[in-house]
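Notes from the 1:1 (GR / supervisor)

We went over the backlog. Supervisor wanted to see one worked example end to end before approving the batch request, so GR pasted a single chain during the call. The sequence is below; no edits were made to it. Supervisor asked that the structure be written out right there so they could see what the output format looks like.
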Amino acid sequence: MQDPAAVHCSPLDRRTAVRAGAAPIECGDQLSRPANRTQITSALLQLRELIFSGAFATGERMAELGLVQRLGVSRTPLRLALAELEHEGLLRGLPGGGYVVREFTQGDVRDAIELRGVLEGTAARFAAERGASARELRTLKEINETIHTLVHRADYDSFERYMRLNESFHARLLKLARSPVLERALDGIVSLPFAGPSAFILAEAELAASREILIIAHRHHSGLVEAIERRQSGRAESLAREHARLALTNLEIFLEHREMLERMPGGTLIALPAKEATESGPAREGEAGREPEHESKRESEPV
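Structure output shown during the call:
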């Protein structure tokens, strides 16, 4: 008789175990049982929150013993969680073993936003081609109508509500694509700093220039629903890509307000030029995306 635990075993479990340096998981293994899966999930969620909150500096080594005590999980689930975060791109594996918190360049963030646009554009095209029910479209319209009542407000509660509605709109739009493969691909992108559709929303409450983008985003939502309803796949894809690029405009605005960027979840993971260099003028071509360790090497060279 098949071990009931085997249903929790997947190729992802085995690959994660190999990345963590553990023995590959076989179906029925103790690691595939619900209690251990719960520990892995708990470790993943806690580690993501700690990394995005700035609890660890970029380049800081993730010490297993301290993390076991801090997270309240055993060593093997922790190693699997760390390996999964390396796979997601938040950690970097070291040649001799272990992990450090990864640092992201502004180019990394821009690439992630562009890729989200490509995937969300594909999702919108699939939705238009494959068709959506009247009920599904009505739900999207109702969400967007509620969003319309919030985009002109400047209070924090309205922005929190807007964020929840925006996430619901994007999640439902993705479901209309009816593509689990596409959903998994997009999950990998939005786990990166500032790549998600709601990454900048709460901070936008403090910047008038950024708030204006919400009005444009609402119009994009309306156009997307209309294009899907009319089965205009090309228009739907183009609108979704343009919609994602609004995040690039937001990024530029927040790069001019670094104190706010650094307070945002994931802000401490972004490599920013030294304030003195920023104030003295734009970096020379080729310097903007340079990794910080290159700068530190240059500074340490003898004059």
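Supervisor's comment: The chain has two domains: 4-101, 106-268.
Batch request approved.
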